[in-house]
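Exam revision sheet. Question 4 asks you to relate a sequence to its structure. Input first:
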Amino acid sequence: MDKNVNTDAIYDAKQLGYPKMITLGFQHMFAMFGATVLVPALTGLNVATTLLFAGLGTLLFHLLTKGKVPAFLGSSFAFLPGYFAIAPNGEAELLPYACFGVAIAGLMYVILAGLFKIFGTKKVMRFFPPIVTGPIIIAIGLSLSSSAVSNCAANWWIALVAIVIVIATNIWGKGMIKIIPILLGVVGSYAFAMIIDPAAREALVTNVANADWIGLPIHMEATVFGLFSGEVDTSLLLTAVVTIVPLSLTAMVEHIGDISAISSTCDRNFMEDPGFHRSLLGDGLATTLASIFGAPANTTYGENTGVLALSKVYDPKVIRIAAVLAILFSFCPKFAAVVSSMPVATIGGVSLVLYGMISAVGVRNVVENKVDFTKSRNVLIAALILVLSIGITYGGAIVIGPVSLSGLAVASIVGIVLNAIMPGKDYTFGTNEQGDTSVNFIVQ
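Answer key, structure tokens:
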């Protein structure tokens, strides 16, 4: 990373004046918006709650990182297989169990943050090399693929519009257009659906008309607290934890890649100051807080890193303005009703691209880190991770007593253990910046 500060960059946005700072804040909010609201649309979680805790999580992250890192925390895609495993159809009574599993997964960040503080980055990352994380990321995308195709089947023309817009803006878009392909794909496909599908149009009008202008974004029956207010299925609770916690491995490695990417963008070493131990702590606690109240897991957002590169305004205060704006929008139920009325085919089209991109990111992670597949250990680790994750996902979970193990949970555990005990570990974090920052689930 270039240690010289970019003289064109702006590190104190006050020199721009508050109107421009607020405008930049809106730009950051819209950059994260499409992908952030897509997660509740896919899982059945509440949109308003999601926006509230994206904002609150970002502010908590900034507090714990001494206000130095210009990162926005939006909804994480890494945990989607966990939500689908516990509540495959977004069942309201099952989602709190999934949220409990994600809340525990967030605490894994705290443990890893402590390990980074005690042992340092290079020693810890030897246990999470690309030969483990890459195949797991590939498997995440592939395990979600069937749900995307099923949603597209509701109306392939509507789905096709979303796919074409996402691809076109991603390849040929310029400036801000290139940074928000998911948002543009959703808006364009949504508008097309309103034109050709009277039923979708009627549903939107009805839902928006019945929603209030102002309302509370937290619903206690959808929180983990609501779960424990009645009779709890302890076996499902344990299954949620065992299924979802291993997914934190990939999310944490994604976080490390994102912070490295932000450091490169801003020409400042946030990996050392405030350090991975602080950024992981902020991300993990934000994820746990959000999950307890029924929102998706949080993660640092690549779209907002793209906005930083575009605007060359690196002042974290602008990100905090975006966080406050997200919080304000969360108190508008009509706004949430618009998102909740999104046609299934629109969700399918966008998620088809997104899930494919997730798998492609896994391939990229393996390629850019130059993983040597002439070594039998690497072939065996990758093979077992892919076959176990996909095979168990589509063949049925492994049941051990009261606990049901998903394919990704089994694959993650097997991959980490095999890498730890087999000789020939040769990965060192920090020697290949391009490889270290190639873990990012966001479509840019």
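Marking note for examiners. The first helix runs from residue 18 to 43.
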